[in-house]
Design a protein that fits this description.
453 residues; alpha+beta; 5 domains; two-stranded antiparallel ribbon; 16 helices
Length: 453
């Protein structure tokens, strides 16, 4: 019998014992177990996994010594592990690092076998001892083993780094230089138009970025339903916005960095918009950008698309205008929202084409930039004034064109209700789903148009 990577599989008796154990575990009614029984079984299973990992490490060590990867068509042991055991490069490297030090790590292996530490602790110890001088390795291992019994693997890595800085300062300096040489930041376009970011920074520079983001994130307000990843993304955008708004960035081609939007108008109405360097954007996105600092160029065209005029206009509220608005609205005007105006974008109650492009403080109201401004400009919501001077945020209909079906049949309805699942209890979401499904009998569109912010 052969496995997927070539070579013989374990003997029939080993496979039989493994399958019997798995069947016995599968047959247990875990919901009927008491808390102590569940804890005992979890400890047993985890200890068994750790022991199996040690056996895997023994075989990785033999595989690497024999350079068996050549015979199996790979370029290295690392490549073979990745391709045939379906793990990441980091995981494969950690396994190989441990396997190559099995003899020197005998005290650590014994601690895992006795259940005093986990296999993950052993991986961390192997990583920290990898580049230490041989004379410092044994006392450092004893120190790490003591720390492993009192800390988790992440804390253990910090202890190991302190030991390495103490026992091998020159080696750590070389490591810091290698990390500096490996710094990178890659920007790439996703198929849906979003910008992807991938990279790695040395620890000091990475801490600078972390401090900036944490400062902008602050303490999340009550009711902030964003994930930590969304908060960090918003903080990075805010960091860039502040840098652009400060006006101290170097000019490129005589122009300071600035979002520039080209807006096409026909017969006095806006018909399309394009963001320089990106491409076409929706008119809803244009409305959202009008609450931020940007530059607009008006392109007036006739019915055939021929340009009649190409001008320029700025569409943003000045600091003085924002201060004036803050005297009337100190926070987002949506009822229940407590976001201060400093974290809001000023929304124009009247469409620009209807008020001749005036940036009038009497028509500006603050909406929080993370949630409510995108909902109003792009999410199909309406901001309606109340008689008492306040405002109400209402879910509305997102208009879609009515298209005739193929063969000249009955027209298909393309209107759909926009609902934010985070704003209604779960039981109401189910009711809305059922009602929305009944509205669209012929074509199966997504039930909810609202995405989590």
């Amino acid at each position: 019998m052969m496995n997927g990577g070539g070579g013989s599989s374990p003997g029939a008796s080993v496979l039989e014992h493994r399958n019997v154990l798995l069947e016995e575990l599968e047959a247990v009614d875990v919901d009927s177990l008491a808390a102590e029984e569940l804890g005992a079984e979890l400890r047993f299973i985890r200890a068994s996994v750790d022991l199996l990992e040690l056996q895997a490490a023994r075989r990785v060590a033999a595989f690497d010594r024999k350079e068996a990867f050549y015979e199996l068509g790979q370029h290295s042991t690392l490549d073979w592990i990745r391709a045939n055991t379906h793990v990441s490069a980091a995981s494969a490297d950690s396994q190989l690092t441990l396997a190559r030090q099995l003899e020197a790590l005998e005290p650590t292996i014994e601690a895992v076998e006795q259940g005093d530490i986990s296999f993950e602790h052993a991986l961390a110890i192997a990583r920290q001892l990898k580049d230490l001088p041989e004379a410092a390795g044994r006392p450092a291992q004893a120190e790490l083993l003591q720390a492993a019994t009192e800390s988790d693997p992440r804390e253990l890595r910090r202890v190991g780094e302190e030991i390495r800085h103490r026992d091998d300062p020159e080696g750590m300096a070389r490591l810091a230089y290698r990390q500096h040489q490996k710094r990178r930041l890659r920007l790439f376009d996703h198929a849906d138009g979003m910008l992807g970011i991938e990279g790695a920074l040395p620890a000091p520079e990475g801490m600078k970025l972390r401090l900036c983001l944490e400062s902008l994130i602050g303490i999340p307000a009550r009711g902030d339903e964003r994930s930590q990843e969304q908060r960090q993304a918003d903080a990075l955008v805010e960091l860039c916005s502040q840098a652009i708004g400060a006006g101290r960035l170097p000019r490129q081609g005589g122009r300071r960095p600035q979002l520039t939007v080209i807006v096409r108008t026909e017969a006095g109405s806006e018909v399309a918009a394009e963001l320089e360097g990106v491409g076409p954007i929706s008119l809803g996105t244009l409305a959202r950008l009008r609450g931020q600092d940007h530059l607009e160029r008006k392109q007036k065209v006739d019915g055939k698309g021929v340009t009649l005029n190409f001008g320029r206009a700025r569409r943003c509220y000045s600091d003085n205008q924002r201060e004036e608005i803050s005297t009337r609205y100190p926070r987002c005007v949506v009822p229940g929202c407590t976001v201060a105006i400093r974290d809001c974008e000023i929304h124009h109650q009247l469409a620009w084409q209807r008020d001749a492009g005036k940036t009038d403080v009497s028509e500006g109201v603050p909406l929080c930039r993370r949630r409510h401004h995108p909902q109003v400009t792009e999410g199909g919501y309406r901001l309606e004034p109340r008689a008492d001077g306040g405002f109400e945020l209402l879910a509305g209909w997102t208009p879609h064109r009515v298209e005739a079906s193929e063969g000249g049949g009955r027209a298909r309805r393309r209107d759909r209700l926009v609902v934010d699942p985070l704003q209604v209890p779960a039981i109401l979401v189910k009711v809305v789903e059922e009602l929305d499904q009944k509205l669209r009998v012929e074509d199966r569109l997504p039930v909810l148009a609202g995405d989590r912010p």
